[in-house]
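haha ok so turns out i had the wrong file open the whole time. this is the CORRECT one, sorry everyone. sequence first:
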Amino acid sequence: MIRILIVGGGTGGLSTANHLAMNLRKEIKENSVKIILLNKEKRHYYQPGFLEIPFNLMRENETYRDLSRLSVNGIELISENAIKIDLDGKFVQTENQKISFDYIVIATGVDYDYERIPGLKDGTENFYDLENSIKLKQKLNSFKGGTVFVGVSSLPYKCAPAPLETVFLLNDLFRKKHIRDRVKIIYSYPIGGVFPNKGVSDFAMKLFEQKGIESRINSVMKSVDPSKKEITFENGDRISYDLAITVPPHVGAKVIRDSAIGNVDGWINVDKFTLEISGKENAFAIGDATALQVSKAGSVADAQAIVVAERIGHKIRGMEPEAL
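then structure:
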């Protein structure tokens, strides 16, 4: 039996599992192929919803689904944490067992390196998981006025437009609550613009001017003082705040760093056309886990999942892979 192991149950992992199940329906039914999804969570989270919860645009229970549904498509779910991936030995070690594979798709997403900026975790809010999203909602519900800071710590990060969306959602929220005149909104970005794409950045800057939103570009956060509610930047500037919402530094997943299969920040080098891991056979990485210079977004991971599923399907059937 050919064993296909998918590590990670985010958009990329779930999409890969489902596309493989559709492509290899016959082989799964004949028990010649087994698809295994290894994910520490028993739920799949719709991560864009984490930004919507604080603004009452989505309810908490609308952001997740139970992964046990995958069994309908013949996919086996193992809800355990991967602690080591051995691409040469073709196995993944969890806290409870060793899982062997013939093909592997790594879709482990990102981790957040709060320690890179002292005080960031205790002094600021974010919307990058359900717990923090709910906490931010509570903070906004009780906010009566003052300075709100929205800042991106470093690149790359998930969903490039999210910080800008946050700024405009805040502007609308405070306007609807009739307190916009009592709120100063400051937005900082670590490069020379408010967005990586110049066209988008220029357009957003015009909106900032129209809506009275301040921007600080080329501003790299150095530290946060939770007691003083003050952010210090590497250029020496300081900003005092009443509420700070930040994008924490992103790194590759711990299991990737611990397994030494990524670069210094834990991103995996892959072929940009095939998504095969450099120098490894029948091993792929997709989505946020890769070092590719593309947006870390669910739509990208979903498109990559189609390519990988098609290529694995072709290989298993003895065909020349064509999907790029």
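Residues 41 and 145 are 38 Å apart (CA to CA).
again sry for the mixup
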